[in-house]
Amino acid sequence: MIGSRAVLMACAVLALAPAALAAGFREKSFVQVNGGAWQPARFWCDTPERVLALSGGGAGSGMLTQWAGGAGRLTARSRTPVTVGADDAGAGQLYTPLTFVGGAAPPPGFFVHSSNVENVQDPAYRMTHVNEFRVPAGSFNCRYVPQAAVVAATARHSVTVWESGGRVTYASRNRDGTPGVQLTGGTHVTGGERDEYRWNRGGYRYMLVVGTARAPGGELRVERAGGS
Fold first, then answer.
1. pLDDT tens digits for 100-149?
2. Each residue's pLDDT tens digit, 19-73
3. Cα separation of 45 and 131, whole Å?
4. Distance between CA 137 and CA 107 in Å, rounded?
5. Residue 161 exposure: Cα atoms within 13 Å on the Cβ side
6. What is the pLDDT of residue 39?
7. Per residue in 190-224, pLDDT tens?
8. Mean pLDDT of 92-105
9. Rounded CA Rg of the chain
10. How far is CA 49 from CA 76, 112, 222, in A?
11. Cα dihedral angle (14, 17, 19, 21), rounded to 10 degrees?
12. Which of 4, 24, 134, 228 has the least C-beta neighbours within 10 A?
């Protein structure tokens, strides 16, 4: 057996809902920068030409990480300290204000806009719906995949895994907007400090390894039988 390995979440972000609880799903999001240690992300946003992630534990100091680029690949990275304000909730919406040093925000200010309804506090939703990041670079509408089990972003791809009724499906989309790989008929194996999603197609085995809060991170392994 020979194989190849792609670091699926390298220099990008990952969100997963690994288990259903009585009061809803448990959601975890992580970010990795330049191959360093994975860190929790409070909110993140995947768009075709930019990925943004806000790290921090709530109101107070935070860090905004952004990856930007073009021609189908994110190549530039920036990290900007930010002051995170208290959440402002109302009419099913949640606005988390952001303040950047040295720049006044034009109305309605800088913020992360998420849903106060579509979130893991409700058993009907696997993940929280993050609608928009409004930051000095602009306003960015975020990809949202209802009922996804895993959502990830890399420099070249957006990745989604669905799991329902024992059926596991993997799909990716390239940064240039074209379809990537789609795999059906997968399995989900749990144990220890990681989850493994596996698919077989055309003599190849695809394995998506996803960590936990104790051992965060992920990668995609592609192996084939035979060869030299």
1. 987 778 888 999 999 999 987 787 888 889 999 999 999 999 999 888 88
2. 544 445 678 888 887 777 888 889 999 998 899 999 988 899 999 999 998 778 8
3. 8
4. 15
5. 30
6. 85
7. 877 788 899 998 888 888 888 777 778 888 788 88
8. 89
9. 18
10. 11, 18, 26
11. 140
12. 228
- What's residue 153's pLDDT? 87
Residues in the chain, how many? 228
Contacts of 217 (CB under 8 A, 6+ apart): 9, 14, 30, 32, 38, 210, 211
CB-based contacts of 165: which residues, under 8 Å, 6+ apart?
Answer: none
Q: Which pair of tokens denotes residue 212?
A: 């936990």
d(CA 228, CA 218): 27
118, 129 in Cβ contact below 8 A? Answer: yes
Q: What is the DSSP letter of 104?
A: P
- What proportion of the chain, given as a percentage, has pLDDT over 70? 86
Q: Tokens 């959601």 label which residue?
A: 27
What type of residue sits at position 76? Answer: A
The structure tokens listed for 32 are 């990795």
Start-to-end Cα distance in the chain: 9
Comparing CA positions, the residue from 62, 41, 35 lying closest to residue 53 is 41
SS3 196: strand
Pairing of strands 179-191, 194-201: antiparallel
